[in-house]
Design a protein that fits this description.
By secondary structure, the chain is an alpha/beta fold. It has 2 domains: 3-140 and 330-351, NAD(P)-binding Rossmann-like Domain (Rossmann fold), CATH 3.40.50.720; 143-321, Dihydrodipicolinate Reductase, domain 2 (2-Layer Sandwich). Helices cover 31% and strands 25% of the residues. It has helices spanning 16-32, 55-64, 74-79, 95-104, 119-132, 146-156, 197-212, 331-345, 353-372; strands spanning 3-11, 36-37, 43-51, 70-71, 83-88, 108-111, 136-138, 163-171, 216-224, 229-231, 237-239, 245-252, 257-263, 274-280, 283-287, 292-296, 320-321, 376-377. A 9-stranded mixed beta sheet has the order 17-16-15-14-8-13-12-9-18. Strand 10 (229-231) and strand 11 (237-239) form a beta hairpin. Helix 4 (95-104) packs parallel to helix 5. It is globular and about 70 Å long. The site of nicotinamide-adenine-dinucleotide has 20 residues, from helix 1. Nicotinamide-adenine-dinucleotide (NAD) is lined by residues 12, 14-18, 52-53, 89-92, 94, 112-113, 139, 141, 185, 187, 200.
């Protein structure tokens, strides 16, 4: 079968996510595997066109990966009709302007989360995409992680009975940048530059909850800045104005309560950097990025509270590993393949800009809850048009 080639304008590829996950592990990996296989037969290869602000960095990146096309002129890249898709992994604050420019140039658009810094902008960009009739998608990579795919399998297989609650623990220590380099970019810690853990992580938690457990109906959150002073990439000290930890309670449809801690100021005493415990009437599960373990009600021990004696039961040993039963490819790559099929053969793709806006809505509601010290309800977003 023949392979056709689609040009993909990739903006922000010198960054952490754009480079590793989207360029190398998704787009280039798809091409190495022979392209995206279409349901109707045939394959699609991707021709990346790298866009950025820094000519030297782009040239070096393009050379390292044997890529011919790169430019600092976004408009020129968008003007080429061979480039059918625009992808954005820039800093969040730069996203909306570039995405709207791409839509106006008639491109299908795929973007990192969050789709915008504010709900208003996230709604606008959704409306603009819908009005132009272009395909649109937002990265929701966590859904494609092996651990969460196993969790989803358990939900869909009815393992839990009635789901009662979800507890999520996410985080690790992000170094301040003085005596050891920080492992995240400094803009993450400046509110004016689109930073903050709520804006970064609540969109993730939103699509995880929405896709696995139910609609998010209300949030009560406390966002704080635990580490007020950090050092940037140039070794200069700066004031950390954005939240670096958030403690959230989310009320979901069906009466499920989810409680998720997110922190860049905690040290890991877990098996993975994120873990979700789901408790249901019939069983419980603990899922991380890769692993998922379960305990059925028939296998549930009966601990008795007695602080006078050391723990007698090996609690962690009382869980069973959920088998893979499938091959799990890189989650970013899997979602890229879905988006390409969505563009080329109109395959379903539920992770659109409207879903992205719902994630931003939760982030905004979480920040409001924290600022005003109250529970905030989420109402369905009015996009003004049907999907
Ligand atoms: N899906 C995920 O798991 C995940 C994880 C981390 C970050 N992200 C998202 O990806 C996006 C990029 O995050 P990152 O961690 O790769 O950031 P990064 O700082 O490593 O990269 C940012 C990119 O944007 C470019 N850029 C454009 N305008 C800029 C400006 N004014 N200032 C600084 N850089 C500018 C940079 O050149 C660089 O290519 C963010 O929107 C973030 O929310 C997603």
């Amino acid at each position: 079968m023949s392979a056709r080639t689609i040009g993909v304008v990739m903006n922000g590829v010198t960054g952490r996510m754009g480079h590793r996950q989207h360029l190398v592990r998704s787009v280039l990996a798809i091409n190495s595997a022979g392209g995206v296989a279409l349901a109707g037969g045939g394959r699609v290869l991707l021709k990346p066109v790298l866009v950025g602000r820094n000519e030297a960095k782009l040239r070096e990146l393009a050379a390292a990966h044997d890529i011919d096309d790169w430019t600092t002129d976004l408009g020129a890249a968008l003007a080429d009709p061979a480039n059918e898709i625009y992808f954005d992994a820039q800093v969040t604050s730069a996203r909306v302007g570039a995405v709207v420019q791409a839509i106006e140039a008639g491109k299908h658009v795929y973007a990192e989360k969050p789709t915008a810094e504010s709900l208003e902008d996230a709604i606008t960009v959704t409306k603009v995409a819908r009005a132009a009739g272009v395909k649109n998608g937002v990265v929701q990579d966590k859904l494609f992680l092996p651990g969460l795919r196993k969790l989803r399998r358990l939900v869909e297989g009815g393992f839990f009975g009635e789901i009662l609650s979800v507890r999520g623990e996410f985080g690790y220590w992000v170094f301040e940048g003085d005596w050891q380099d920080a492992q995240r970019p400094s803009w993450n810690y400046r509110a004016a530059d689109g930073g903050g853990i709520v804006l970064d992580m609540f969109p993730h938690w939103h699509y995880v909850m929405e896709n696995l457990f139910g609609t998010v109906e209300a949030v009560t959150a406390r966002a704080v800045t635990h580490v007020p002073r950090r050092w940037d990439e140039a070794g200069e000290p700066y004031e950390a104005t954005a939240d670096d930890a958030a403690y959230g309670i989310f009320e979901l449809s069906g009466g499920i309560v989810a409680q998720i801690n997110s922190s860049w100021a905690t040290r890991v005493f877990r098996d993975e950097l994120v873990e979700f415990q789901v408790d249901g009437t019939e069983g419980s599960a603990v899922a991380g990025l890769r692993r998922c373990r379960v305990q059925h009600r028939s296998m549930t021990p009966k601990p008795v509270w007695n602080p006078d004696l050391p723990a007698t039961e090996p609690f962690r040993g009382q869980w069973q590993e959920v088998p893979d039963n499938a091959e799990f490819d890189n989650g970013f790559k899997v979602q890229w393949e879905m988006f390409i099929r969505h563009v080329v053969e109109d395959a379903p793709f539920p992770y659109d800009f409207a879903a992205g806006a719902r994630g931003v809505q939760l982030a905004e509601a979480g920040l409001l809850s924290s600022a005003e010290g109250r529970r905030v309800e989420l109402t369905p977003i009015d996009f003004g048009t049907e999907a």
